[in-house]
Amino acid sequence: AVPVDGEVFQGRSTVTVEHLTGESKPLEKKMGDCIPGGARNLDGMLIVK
Question: pTM of the entire structure?
Answer without folding.
Answer: 0.86
